[in-house]
Each structure stands twice: as structure tokens, then as C-alpha cells.
Design goal:
By secondary structure, this protein is α+β, with helices and mostly antiparallel strands. It has 2 domains: 130 residues, OB fold (Dihydrolipoamide Acetyltransferase, E2P) (Beta Barrel); 290 residues, Bira Bifunctional Protein, Domain 2 (BirA Bifunctional Protein, domain 2, 2-Layer Sandwich), CATH 3.30.930.10. It is built from 13 helices and 18 strands. Strands 6, 9, 10, 13, 14, 15, 16, 17 and 18 form a 9-stranded mixed β-sheet that branches. Strands 1-2-3-5-4 form a 5-stranded mixed beta barrel. A hairpin with a 2-residue loop joins strand 15 and strand 16. It is an enzyme of class 6 (ligase). Its EC number is 6.1.1.6. This is Lysine--tRNA ligase. Homodimer. GO terms for molecular function: ATP binding; lysine-tRNA ligase activity; magnesium ion binding; tRNA binding.
């Protein structure tokens, strides 16, 4: 069997052969009339019309039988079969050129008419064929030689090409995010764009990534959260706002954590944790119904049912580590965890009936923490005191803090409406709805240590 380098060298020779023939192996313009999907769905009408059509795609398989060649090609919308017949109607010269210079993996343009073979296979009979992009490396054959999981993540383009299930997962990811946006838009929210270079890493308690701006000669931080900017917009009179974007937390990597991840954050004036729980329940039912057509789906062998009201339970009086290890993995059905101690979040309001607790909830489903939300603190005096506690932790060596933000405190002192805030970990939600156990499987290009 030829080595990868030998195959590459052979293909480079074919590339040179095409160029010597005066053929551009990477032309600017492409002719395209119908996609593979359209040709399949509208095959009867297109075939009966008898008109020559242009189709394009990547060669996925070749079957040569003397003076005829069958090939399958994929344009990203689906696969279709082509038939090349030497001299009828494809010229002998074009047929021989194809035999000498074309390989699986090449992108091609085919002009021809549609017909059914004797086996009733939908096919385009090639009249002309043209190279659109000459490939220099062979495609992996069902992951032969590319079985290493990390290698799949590094070469996601090959993963998508070779594994239809992976491609479908990312199509579903896009649908989920679009459904979420639709729900928020229909609820009267405005989507906003917020800065990714921040002078302080605030809005959450996590270790940030730091960078430096040369012209200003100051350090900036990548966002661990966008909560504070959203609440400043509420102070400015924008009552319902949300943002979907990247967050960066300089922490460990495991099956449910990636340092760079996608998050939705929203704030609504005059809302509180109770109204936000109702909002989240309606949102999740809307998304699940939009994806599955029903309110039940399977995750890791267990059926999750969103039909009734979500369960509510108080945060257990155990350590956070014990909760995460012993309780959270058992919460398969949708469950709101409420009544957290004040120390858990510096931005949440205290409960009126018990000031030692905050008006906060998290949504857990399938053992995954999906949502963090609470009645937002809008008392600047209380916020300043909470910041002082955070600063004390920082001086004591704790790096997972939210440091004092004087500009945010100033905005609060101008007056901020009571409001409810929501944070949704989109990658984990997509894990849940695509029945995936590893967060890297739902991020196109997850964070990996560079190869030596």
C-alpha cells in the first residue's frame, strides 16, 4: 500500500499534468443549476424536461468498468450519482483526462442530463466534466488511520466529511440556537452586541484570560460573563436584552467544560427569579418541541419528559462538591434548584423572608447544569458591600472572584430597575438535545493542546 507521501506526490504530478494541458485546477467561476438535494427531490420533472444541467460536488467514490465510470459526488446537500461514458456523450479526450487526473476527494463540475439506470438509480449522464479543486491528500476511509478521538477534533473537516452523524449534530446545534433566538425575539427582547475586550473580568466568579493592548498599553480581559453590561443597558432604558456569544474561563477541561464556550445571557426589567423560572420552562418546552416534535426525548439511555411542570427543590445543606458529586448526576428530569446561600453569588438579591439566602435558581436536566438565573441585585449599597467581600477573597489569594467595578456601581447609583437575569450554557444544552456525553463533540473546534 502506498504511503501518504507517495499518494500526495502522485497527485502533485496529476496537478502538473492538468496545468501542462492548459487546465486551471482551481478555477474562479463555477456553473451550478441544481443541488444534489434538488436533483433528488425534483428528479422526475428535471429528467422529463431533458435539459442539460450543471451539478457540482466532491467525488466520494469511483467505479470504473472499461469505457464507463460511475461516481458518487456530494455537494453538501446530499449525494448523487454520475455516469461517464467514453465518446457518448462525453468526449473520448475528456474521459481519458478524467482517468489520468481525477481522484476521490476532487471537487468537480458536471454538465449533463438526468436519467434512471436499469437499477432505477437517479443519475446524471455527463456531457462535460471540469475540475474545480484538485485534492492532494486522500480522504480517510471510514476513519481507517484516523480513529484517535482527539485527531477527529483536530481535523473536524474530515470528521464532518466522513461521519454524517457529526454533521447532523452541528445542523441541529444551529436549529437550537435559532429556536432560542426566535423565542426571545417573540418575547420582545432586543439582541445586543457586547465587548469582548473588558477592563475588568466581572459578572461571574471565574479565572479570566488576560491580553494586552499595545496602543493603549493596558491589559484587557476576555469575558467570563456579560451580565454587567446587560444590566447597564437596563439602567439606560432597554428593558429586555439578550446576547449570545463566547465566554472564556481559564479553568480545567473535562467532558462538560471547555475554556471557550457559548452562552446566552439575558436581563429583563421588572422580572424576578419566579417569573424567570416560568420563562425558562416555556423556552425549553418550545425548543424541545421544535427539535423533536414532542416534549419527550432520550439522553444517555433515559427518557426526559418536559410535559408537566418542572420540579422545584431547595439546594441541599451539603458542600458544593458533595452536591455536584452525589446529587446533581441523579437529577435526570427537569429540576429547578432554589434557595442558595448568599456566598454563592455576589449579584443576586437576598430573599425577603430569609436574608441568608439568595433569590436564585439553576436548572438541571440529564444531570447537567443548564441554566443559572436570579433576581438581580439593584441596590448599589448592598452591591458595594458584596464587592468588598469579593475583594477580601482576592487579597486572601482566591482567584475565582468578581472584583469591584466602580463604573458598574456608578451606573447602579443612577438607578436600575428591579430585574431578572438568565444565563444558559448553550453547549451543554446542545449536548443534552443531541444525546452527547462529551462537550467537545458539540463544539466544532474545541480547545486542544497543540501537537509538538
Amino acid at each position: 500500500m502506498a504511503s501518504l507521501e507517495e499518494i500526495r506526490q502522485t497527485r502533485l504530478e496529476k496537478l502538473s499534468f492538468l496545468i501542462e494541458k492548459g487546465i486551471d485546477p482551481y478555477p474562479v467561476h463555477t456553473n451550478l443549476d441544481v443541488s444534489c438535494e434538488t436533483a433528488t427531490v425534483q428528479f422526475k420533472d428535471l429528467a422529463e424536461a431533458g435539459r442539460s444541467l450543471y451539478m457540482v460536488g466532491r467525488i466520494m467514490s469511483l467505479r470504473a468498468q472499461g469505457k464507463i465510470i460511475f461516481l458518487d459526488f456530494n455537494d453538501g446537500t446530499g449525494r448523487f450519482q454520475a455516469l461517464l461514458k467514453k465518446g457518448e456523450p462525453l468526449s473520448s479526450e475528456s474521459f481519458e483526462l478524467f482517468e489520468k487526473a481525477y481522484d476521490i476527494g476532487d471537487f468537480i463540475e458536471i454538465k449533463g442530463t438526468l436519467f434512471l439506470t436499469k437499477k432505477e438509480e437517479k443519475t446524471i449522464l455527463a456531457e462535460e466534466i471540469r475540475m474545480l479543486s484538485k485534492s492532494l491528500r486522500p480522504l480517510p476511509e471510514k476513519w481507517h488511520g484516523l480513529s484517535d478521538v482527539e485527531e477527529r477534533f483536530r481535523k473536524r473537516y474530515l470528521d464532518l466529511l466522513s461521519n454524517e452523524e457529526v454533521k447532523e449534530r452541528f445542523i441541529i446545534r444551529a436549529k437550537i440556537i435559532n429556536l432560542i433566538k426566535q423565542f426571545y425575539n417573540e418575547a420582545g427582547f432586543i439582541e445586543v452586541d457586547l465587548p469582548n475586550l473588558q477592563p475588568l473580568a466581572g459578572g461571574a466568579t471565574a479565572l479570566p484570560f488576560k491580553t494586552h493592548h499595545n496602543a493603549l498599553d493596558i491589559d484587557f480581559y476576555l469575558p467570563i460573563a456579560q451580565e454587567l453590561y446587560l444590566k447597564e443597558l437596563l439602567a439606560g432604558g432597554m428593558n429586555k436584552v439578550f446576547e449570545i456569544g463566547k465566554r472564556f474561563r481559564n479553568e480545567g477541561i473535562d467532558t462538560s467544560h471547555n475554556p471557550e464556550f457559548s452562552m446566552l445571557e439575558s436581563n429583563e426589567a421588572y422580572a424576578d427569579a419566579v417569573s424567570q423560572r416560568d420563562f425558562i420552562e416555556r423556552l425549553f418546552k418550545f425548543v424541545v418541541k421544535g427539535i423533536f416534535g414532542k416534549l419527550q426525548f432520550e439522553y444517555q439511555g433515559q427518557e426526559i419528559d418536559l410535559e408537566g411542570k418542572f420540579k422545584i427543590m431547595p439546594y441541599p445543606k451539603i458542600t458544593d462538591e458533595e452536591y455536584k458529586r452525589e446529587i446533581r448526576p441523579t437529577l435526570i428530569q427537569p429540576t429547578f434548584i432554589i434557595d442558595y446561600p448568599v456566598s454563592f453569588n455576589p449579584f443576586a438579591k437576598r430573599k425577603a423572608e430569609n436574608p441568608s439566602l439568595i433569590d436564585r435558581f439553576q436548572l438541571v436536566m440529564g444531570g447537567l447544569e443548564l441554566v443559572n438565573a436570579f433576581s438581580e441585585l439593584n441596590n448599589p449599597i448592598d452591591q458595594r458591600e458584596r464587592y468588598l467581600e469579593e475583594d477580601k477573597k482576592g487579597k486572601a489569594g482566591n482567584k475565582d472572584i468578581s472584583p469591584s467595578d466602580q463604573e458598574y456601581l456608578e451606573a447602579m447609583e443612577y438607578g436600575m430597575p428591579p430585574n431578572g437575569g438568565i444565563g444558559i450554557g448553550l453547549d451543554r444544552l446542545i449536548m443534552l438535545l443531541t444525546n452527547t456525553k462529551n462537550i467537545k463533540e458539540v463544539i466544532l473546534f474545541p480547545t486542544l493542546k497543540p501537537k509538538d
